[in-house]
Write a structure and sequence with these properties.
Elements lengths: L2 E3 L5 H11 L7 E5 L11 E4 L5 H7 L5 E4 L8 H15 L3 E7 L10 H13 L3 E7 L4 H4 L2 H7 L2 E3 L11 H13 L6 E5 L7 H12 L5 E3 L2 H10 L4 H15 L9 H6 L6 H9 L1
Parallel strand pairs: 1-2, 1-4, 2-3, 4-5, 5-6, 6-8, 7-9
Helix pairs in contact: 1-7, 2-3, 3-4, 8-12, 9-10
This protein binds NADP nicotinamide-adenine-dinucleotide phosphate.
The site of NADP nicotinamide-adenine-dinucleotide phosphate has 23 residues, from helix 1.
């Protein structure tokens, strides 16, 4: 049995490999990476697999039984990149493809969802058994801004009073491991989100409580939030993406109360207070 993970040098991929090593022998795990030099510390077999180079994918997937396809970080190129992986997996005889999609992919208003919809359709059309892990927002998307918010005196965003059911990368990694090592997940789709939801006002209140300093939430029009993010050095296209996704959050795009994630991992998802504490450390 060989389990391979794409994006193994990424933040989610590294967590999956670490958690998988605790459950299965390391020689059954293959890290698929674009840049092998970055992967010398993974502690598992590493194979070169560039989403843009089908020849590397076909070689890398030989002998692999289960594949975790972690969605690419190259927004705009992902549908093609993922298709390359799925085609190579089919050729190599992979028996189960697990794909990290986006929450409520079929109905999500997020601009990101188009590529995920395309990949979900490709996975299903491949005829290979699949599991769709429709991951919600990472809590780290917000906790990554905590130091800046404390320094600047406010937490800014455009999510209004939208409730966000985020979970940590570690929670999502546990879900991927549960599916890769468990039984009965073939041809299933899971909507994965945190057990508890919060508004950015509630997040700011938790930051204030833990930082011992009043950090209010300041809701900005989307264009102003995008401009502020650009001012922090975030590339313009990505800044507009982030601000737009926050506006989608205002309409409930990041909310889910089905608790499928905690059911899958057999424990509650990481509380927001714990994630805030980790970020403030
Ligand atoms: N749910 C959310 O809130 C959220 C937030 C951000 C991202 N995401 C999605 O979830 C994925 C995993 O998140 P993450 O935090 O682990 O992202 P990450 O740390 O940016 O990791 C992305 C991984 O994709 C690999 N990659 C990029 N282009 C590639 C290519 N052409 N061929 C092969 N590998 C390639 C990167 O390889 P290198 O190390 O060589 O660069 C890296 O290992 C992201 O890629 C993105 O699709 C979700």
């Amino acid at each position: 049995m060989k389990i391979a993970i794409t994006g193994a040098t990424g933040q989610l991929g590294r967590l999956v490999i670490e958690k998988l090593k605790a459950q299965v022998p390391a020689d059954q795990i293959v890290g698929l990476v674009r840049t092998p030099a970055k992967a010398t510390d993974l502690g598992v077999e590493v194979r070169e697999a560039d989403y843009n180079q089908s020849a590397t994918l076909e070689t890398a997937l030989v002998g692999v039984n289960k594949l975790l396809l972690i969605s690419s970080s190259e927004v705009g190129q992902r549908a093609t990149q993922h298709r390359n992986v799925i085609e190579a997996a089919k050729k190599a005889g992979v028996q189960h493809i697990v794909y990290t999609s986006v929450l409520h992919a079929d109905s999500s208003p997020l601009s990101l969802a188009d590529e995920h919809r395309a990949t979900e359709a490709d996975v299903k059309a491949s005829g290979v058994a699949y599991t769709l892990l429709r991951n919600g927002w990472y809590t780290e998307n917000y906790t990554g801004s905590i130091h800046g918010a404390v320094a600047g005196g406010a937490f800014i965003g455009s999510a209004k009073d939208g409730r966000i059911s985020s979970a940590t990368r570690a929670d999502f990694a546990d879900a991927a491991v549960a599916v890769l090592t468990g039984e009965g997940h073939e041809n299933k789709t899971y909507e994965l989100a945190g057990d508890e939801s919060y508004t950015l006002t509630e997040l700011a209140a938790e930051i204030s409580r833990q930082a011992g300093k009043d950090i209010p939430y300041k809701d900005l029009p989307v264009a102003d939030y995008a401009a502020a993010l650009t001012g922090f050095g975030i590339p313009e296209g990505f800044a507009h993406g982030l601000a737009g996704w926050d506006a989608n959050a205002a309409e409930g795009a990041l909310f889910d109360d089905s608790r499928q994630l905690s059911k899958l991992i057999g424990r509650p998802t990481t509380p927001l207070a714990t994630a805030v504490a980790a970020a403030l450390k």
